[in-house]
Inverse folding.
């Protein structure tokens, strides 16, 4: 199975900060990489598919990049509603696997 | 509007069995790979099983192979997860999600159903 490793596992940031989360795959996954946001007690929400394709309705402050084994999710200016846990997911092989998550907390 | 509604979660003893169901509406169910994703308390997401749109292929995470069986009834627009030989580590919220195919993504999720394995 393909292992996905996110870093950091958690971070503290302030409103307006630029935040970057990294996801590394244990082997090349081309651009088959998705990003999700999850808030407590809720199902995950798809933010970005195919490494960089922003889903409809997702604020433009979110962006994704990368290919092969290294990927990043960037929040250009952190907003109050962005405090949540973020997961990367590979769909290069099945069943899909997720990173362990990155919890973004208020500083 | 796409809707996925899970049911069947319960408290069960170790070694017991449970069958989860997911009722789908708002899209052509028979055109999509479907998956079960779980989240243990305070932990991350894990896709435990996926099934292709026509039921021709199923995939499982290693930790549930031989114990869990995914199935679907396209006529009833329903997805199922039969869980046998349950263990404490299977305790989680189980989500039904549309997707799971290579190159795909999980755009639509159910609200989740809680499975608790404890004596």
């Amino acid at each position: 199975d393909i292992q996905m490793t996110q870093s950091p596992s958690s971070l503290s940031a302030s409103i307006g900060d630029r935040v970057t989360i990294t996801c590394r795959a244990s082997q090349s996954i081309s651009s088959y990489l998705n990003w999700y946001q999850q808030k407590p007690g809720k199902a995950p929400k798809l933010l970005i598919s195919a490494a960089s394709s922003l889903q409809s309705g997702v604020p433009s402050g979110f962006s994704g990049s990368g290919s092969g084994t290294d990927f990043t999710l960037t929040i250009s200016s952190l907003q109050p509603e962005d405090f949540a846990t973020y997961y990367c997911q590979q769909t290069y092989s099945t069943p899909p696997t997720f990173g362990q998550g990155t919890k973004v907390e208020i500083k | 509007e796409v809707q996925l509604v899970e049911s069947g979660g319960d408290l069960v003893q170790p070694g017991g069995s449970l069958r989860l169901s997911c009722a789908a509406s708002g899209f052509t169910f028979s055109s999509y790979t479907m998956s079960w994703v779980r989240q243990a308390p305070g932990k991350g997401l894990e896709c435990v099983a996926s099934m292709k749109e026509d039921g021709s292929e199923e995939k499982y995470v290693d930790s549930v192979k031989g114990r869990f069986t995914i199935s679907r009834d396209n006529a009833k627009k329903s997805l199922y997860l039969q869980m046998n030989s349950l263990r404490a580590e299977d305790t989680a919220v189980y989500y039904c999600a549309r997707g799971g195919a290579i190159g795909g993504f999980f755009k639509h999720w159910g609200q989740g159903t809680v499975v608790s394995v404890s004596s």
In short: The longest strand of chain A covers residues 19-25. The CA atoms of residues 19 and 74 of chain A lie 6 Å apart. Chain A has a mean pLDDT of 97. DSSP finds no helices and eleven strands in chain A.
